Every structure is written in structure tokens, then in C-alpha cells.
Amino acid sequence: MSNGGPSSQTILVVGGGISGVSAAIEAAEAGQEVILLESTATLGGRVAQLNRYFPKLCHPTCGLEINYSRMKKARNLKVYTLTTVENVTGERGNYTVTVKTQPRYVNANCTACGDCAQATEAKVPNPFNYAMDEISAAYLPHEMAFPMRYVVDGSVIGTPEADKIKGACKYDAVDLDEREGSFDVTVGAIVWATGWQPYDPAKLTSYRFDSSPDIITNVEMERMASHDGPTGGKIVRLSDGAEAKKVALVQCAGSRDHNHLPYCSRVCCLASMKHAAYVRERYADANVDIYYIDIRAHDKLDTFYQRIKNDPQVNFVKSKPASIVVNDEGRPCVKGENTLTRELYEEPYDLIVLATGMEPAVGAPPVSLTQDDYGFIVPDEGEEDSGMISCGVASGPLDVSMSVQSATAAALKAIQAVKGAA
Ligand SMILES: Cc1cc2nc3c(=O)[nH]c(=O)nc-3n(C[C@H](O)[C@H](O)[C@H](O)COP(=O)(O)OP(=O)(O)OC[C@H]3O[C@@H](n4cnc5c(N)ncnc54)[C@H](O)[C@@H]3O)c2cc1C
Fold first, then answer.
1. Which domains does the chain possess?
2. Which end of the chain is less crowded, N or C, counting CB atoms within 10 A of the terminal residue's CB?
């Protein structure tokens, strides 16, 4: 460390998805003091919103729960939810980070009994289900939330609904006077694990996302297939609630396209295989068409691809659809040309799922970070000993197992950074 200033051995991890949680636990279990910040009310990130994981199709809570129980044992790990980084000054070994906290309006007395939710009729769009349904204005973010603590939505503060919510709590857990706050922490290294957000389907003008409720995105499909999703796990046409038995999965919706995301997000092909499996498991007589440019099933995930490919009711159409139109019966249709047969098609479906890609969520970071052309946070060339480290999808498109590997590597780099600065 230069300037001979005080050196902090504490590691800050920004983002509490699977990558940030993994990096934080690995560093804490190796003996470092760790602070983990998450901007939303619960840890788990996008993984918590998945119905199941490829390739084994197990439930994401398997992986997350193990991590949460490790976290509970790590006394040198502090977790702050509803918290982000506002400013960073200093250098490796001695960063001063100003963090900003948002009010939850619910303190640690909360037992998650749910009486507050029962007390109000006020509803807000459910962020966990990508606003596909509504939730009480006093809500648990989801049934496996960590921390297991309710949130009162800011929109009801100052209204009689807030008083009803407070009045219903037997444990004095509702604190309507909470306000935004900020405080400084001194840390030696920062791991950026800020993850991704889904590409905005409204930007894909030829796919007319808003023209029918039966055109959804791949992340919405994850929620629709989930038992705690907006349809209770039923895969349906959102227009009329009928079973969706003819489903189109449109690959590279905006990906590998210089007008949108020029890169491949690596996971969308496999996610769509998983979506084909969701539909086929639910309806024995369902048919799924997958429109693709080429299938990218990397490494061992090819076995999962072959399994789906062998299903005679899953049909692979080599084509990048030109457009989506709504026909006279109100059904959305995929239109284009089959690249192999040269046939033109216009096929109606119960449900069309756009496989939109992952774009970095970090936006404009509060400190100068090296980002690639697409906004992913990458190492500074020639600065192997930097105190700024990225992992998971913040560093590039990765699946869960690759994210966890990169998080473990980031924990080690952060330890080296703070030890090297001492
Ligand atoms: C449709 C779809 C299905 C998928 N299915 C699978 C699958 O089955 N199997 C698989 O292996 N992979 C799958 N993936 C990929 C998987 O979702 C990612 O690998 C995983 O989410 C990466 O985790 P992460 O922690 O890096 O990012 P995220 O999950 O995005 O977590 C980042 C966290 O950081 C928080 N955050 C962001 N900015 C800030 C900030 N400034 N301050 C504090 N906190 C912040 C966010 O709120 C979030 O909690 C799928 C992807 C898609 C698009």
C-alpha cells in the first residue's frame, strides 16, 4: 500500500446474489472480516427467482440454503440488505466507502408471522414475480427470503394503511419512522458481484412484446413455472388462463445482434431447454418449437441438450424469426424463414417465450472501474494486485456453477489484495 496509511483487512462484497454470497462466505471462512451489501430486501439475486436449475433441474433453494446456514455461522461476516455503495475513495488496502441504506420499515423483531400483510388491502406490483402479479404492501419478498423479514412498501408510508400495518404487529417490529441513511466503512478490497438484469424486451420492436399478454420473456417463464409464481406454477396463456400446450421459445431475442446485445449470454439456450422440460412435464400432449440460430450448450451441458432433443414433441427450427404478429383470432404468431428448408412460416402459439439475454446491472458505478465494451467489470490490464475485483455475471455472462467458481477466485484475490497491502 502506498502513502504508509492505515491498512484495512476487511473485504467489502457488493451484491448478494449467488456470486456475492459465495465470495463473502469463502473470504469469511478463510478468516477475513467481510461486509456484504445487497441493494434489495433479500439475498439470493436472480437465482432465487429461478424455478429450477439446469442441468439437474433441482430447486435453487438447495444451493442457497446451504450458503445461508454457512453465513449464520460466520461471525466475521456482516450483511446489510437494502444497501448500496454511494461513493468510494482511497486505494487498495484503504478504501473509504460511503454506503446508503433504504428503509425497510420493519426491524429485527419481525417473526414473519404475516399479520401485517393481513391488516392492509393496499397492493403493490410484486418485484419477485417481475410485476406479473400484485402483493400486499406489507410483504415477505419470497418464501425463502434471507433475512426472513417483512418489508413495508414505501408507497403506503404516511397513509392510513401504514397505521393499520403497524397496529397489526404484536412484536413492535414495524418502524414507520425509518429513513434513508448512510455511513462509511473502511475496507482493503472490494468485490463487485452486482450481477445482471434481463434485456428489455420492449426494445425488440419487431417482436411486439406489448401486443399480447401471451408473449413473455424467459425470466417471466421461470416465475410462471414456479409454485410460488403468479399462476401457482401453471403454464398458461395469460390472456385467458387456458393451458399453454403449444409453446414457442425464441432464442437470441436481442442477443448476438449489434442493435441490441452483441454478445451471447451463454445460458439462454440451456434455459430454453429447461423451459421445454417445464412444458413437457406439465402437459403430456404439449408441443414446443425452439427457434434458434445455433445451439450453445457448453461443456457437460450438452447431455442435457441431447435429452431435450430426443423428445419427439420438442421441435428445433433453425431460424431467427423475423417478427411476431397477432393474427385475427388474437393469437401471437412467429413469422420467418426456416434456414434449412427455405420454407416461410407464420405459426400461431398459445405462448411465445423470448429468450432475452443478460446485461450487466452495475450501470454507472460509483467509482471508476474497468468495464468492457458491454459494461461487464473486468480486471485492469497489468494491475493484478488491484483492490477492485469482479465476479459472477458482473464480470461476464456465466451460469451458476461458473459464477460460484469465479466468486471463489475473487475471494482469494481479495484476500491477496488486503494481505499484500498490509
Ligand atoms: C432465464 C434464465 C434462466 C437461467 N437459469 C439458469 C439455470 O438453470 N442454471 C444456471 O446455472 N444458470 C442459470 N441462469 C444464469 C444465472 O441466473 C446466473 O448465473 C446467476 O444469476 C449469476 O448470479 P450473480 O450473483 O452473478 O448475479 P445476480 O443473480 O444478478 O445477483 C446480483 C445481486 O447483486 C445485487 N446488486 C446489483 N447491484 C447492486 C448494487 N449496486 N449494490 C448492492 N447490490 C447490488 C442484485 O440485487 C442481486 O441480488 C439463468 C439465466 C437466465 C437469464
1. 2-102+180-195+361-421 (3.50.50.60), 115-168 (no CATH), 199-358 (3.50.50.60)
2. C
